[in-house]
Amino acid sequence: MEQASVQRLARVLRVLVIITFVCNLIALLMIPMLVSMYGELSVGEMIDWGMDGLSYLFEMESTPRDYFPFTMMFFYAWIVVWTDEFMGVLTIFLWVCGVCTATILWQGKRVLGTILKGNPFVLDNAKSLKRAAVCCFVISGAALARLIWGFIYYQSIAPLFTYNALFVPIFLMGGLLFMVMSALFRQAAELKAENDLTI
Fold first, then answer.
1. What is the pTM of this model?
2. Among 58, 98, 109, 146, which residue's Cβ finds the most Cβ atoms within 10 Å?
3. DSSP one-letter code for 117
4. How do residues 41-65 score in pLDDT, each as one tens digit?
């Protein structure tokens, strides 16, 4: 009974992780366009602009409003972000974080898959959690590097009050937590293997 409810929960979580993973991949492709518009448009204007572009792409609207066609802006942004130091650093940072979060989500999907099979205590789960830990450490390091870059770029302590400053300890702690969970799963898998051998 309890195992069935855990598997039901794992099935729901797996679907949510897959949806988030796909959204993450789409967001990775959109990073240059969003960075190139950073500071020029408000959030509401960016959402309106994006919705207009999507409706134009899917031919729900006959002509786009006062802007480049969505596809032209998409490809143009991949060039524009490298013309400014701030935009280039932000793009690289967001790509590193995006790739790492996609990897963490994929590893989570793998762990949930073993739970669905009813065999969560395997060495593969320990490896998956260790990969997730490494990704957390990479995000923490990238945030620290961007924080240091911000101190030099702005020549003030203002970057200390941004999300980058929060990313450093949060993802560092997340990485440590994944390392502990990896060690626990490894130990459980080894104990299970010993028990299987004695039986």
1. 0.81
2. 146
3. T
4. 555 665 665 666 656 555 555 554 5
Residue entry with tokens 């130990």: 187
Q: CB–CB of 164/147 below 8 Å?
A: yes
51 contacts: CB under 8 Å, gap ≥ 6: none
DSSP string computed for 128-156: HHHHHHHHHHHHHHHHHHHHHHHHHHHSS
| Dist CA 186 CA 32 (whole Å) | 40
What is the span of the domain harbouring residue 21? 1-84
Q: Identify whether 129 is part of a domain.
A: no
Cβ contacts of 121 within 8 Å, gap of 6 or more: 185, 188, 189, 191, 192
Residue 141 to residue 147: CA distance in whole angstroms: 10
SS3 label, residue 85: helix
Distance between CA 142 and CA 175 in Å, rounded? Answer: 14
C-alpha gyration radius of the chain? 22
For residue 167, give the 3-state DSSP assignment. Answer: helix
Is there a domain that residue 55 lies in? yes
Max distance between CA atoms of the chain, in angstroms, equals 73
Cα dihedral 29→30→32→33 (10° resolution): 150
Decide if 142 contacts 97 (C-beta within 8 A).
yes
pLDDT digits (tens, 9 = 90+) for 131-142: 999 999 999 999
Query: Domain for residue 78, yes or no?
Result: yes
